[in-house]
Amino acid sequence: MPYDQEKQTAIAAVIQAAQLCEAVRQGLVPAAIEKNDKSPVTIADYGAQALICKALAEAFPNDPVVGEEDTTDLRQPETAHVLTAVTEQVQQTIPSATDSDVLNWIDHGNGTVASRYWTLDPIDGTKGFLRGDQYAIALALVVDGDIKVGVLGCPFLSFDGAETGLLFAAVRGEGTVMMPIAGGNPQRLRVTAADDVDRLRLVESVESGHGDLSQQAQVAQAVGITAPSIRMDSQAKYAAVAAGQAALYLRLPSPKTPDYREKIWDHAAGVLVVEEAGGRVTDMHGKPLDFASAARFPNNPGVVASNGAIHNAVIQALN
Ligand SMILES: Nc1ncnc2c1ncn2[C@@H]1O[C@H](COP(=O)(O)O)[C@@H](O)[C@H]1OP(=O)(O)O
Ligand SMILES: [Mg+2]
Ligand SMILES: [Mg+2]
Ligand SMILES: [Mg+2]
């Protein structure tokens, strides 16, 4: 099977990172540090990036990793205690890890977009993680601008009252599967059918500043969605569309930050998980998202992820 080694490596690394994140969360209330852009980061974000980058560096030493976090703040003398805490968490998985190993592994995630690269969000939805809500560990492999492998770990997600902690994995052309993070059989996923009125639902961010709630509501109404929206943090929203729990995920540019450009690690894994489950993902104008250029989409405003059946109607309603 194509990309089988990549898929297996990515799944194993995401599961390790998911266990670290849940260990941090089940300990004391995780402290957040504020980054330059005022967004939060925790020892779990750093620890998850360290574990996943170590695994990728060993298995695929020539592949750059474009990850969210870097070590600038961690290397400051006043945050030495934070680095110590990150290393302690990483040592639960790799007992020999030193502070210097951890810094080097995190920095392995500061690669740039190339003909073949990985992109990593060690915790997508850090605000959800801190609130005790949804978050995701998102890892994808991109080759010549095309997402080939996407793995989403959602440690706090469950559907229809089944087990909590789900992992979603997709390989281009091979479909999407869902499996419990704790272990169990993979199950093939399919987006909701066009005529499944019960599942004709919109999923959108909890953070009102990450989208345009009023335009999202108007578009949903225009395509016949009448149920109240599901509010969820992180790329777990893509998982909800892939699993048929929702028919549409809208992320339209917030009027407060109209120039915000979405980052590749906030979407790559989720996009493939939806596409391989039979859905469609584009920007708000119906154009494919550009994973070939840079860490941020240069020219893709908004994101629309759907079951495919309603996609054209959504784009029409938007334009
Ligand atoms: N103005 C914005 N518009 C859209 N997304 C944003 C904005 N500001 C931050 N984000 C990103 O939204 C993601 C969380 O999405 P959600 O709200 O769906 O859970 C985070 O990765 C965050 O990036 P960052 O980590 O750089 O702050
Ligand atoms: Mg962040
Ligand atoms: Mg993110
Ligand atoms: Mg993040």
TrEMBL record:
Its EC number is 3.1.3.7. It is an enzyme of class 3 (hydrolase). It catalyses: adenosine 2',5'-bisphosphate + H2O = AMP + phosphate; 3'-phosphoadenylyl sulfate + H2O = adenosine 5'-phosphosulfate + phosphate; adenosine 3',5'-bisphosphate + H2O = AMP + phosphate; a myo-inositol phosphate + H2O = myo-inositol + phosphate. Pfam families: Inositol_P. InterPro entries: DPNP, Inositol_monoP_metal-BS, Inositol_monoP_superfamily, Inositol_monophosphatase-like, Inositol_monophosphatase_CS. Keywords: Hydrolase, Magnesium, Metal-binding. One of its GO terms (molecular function) is 3'(2'),5'-bisphosphate nucleotidase activity. Signal peptide: none annotated. Its cofactor is Mg(2+). Belongs to the inositol monophosphatase superfamily. This is 3'(2'),5'-bisphosphate nucleotidase.
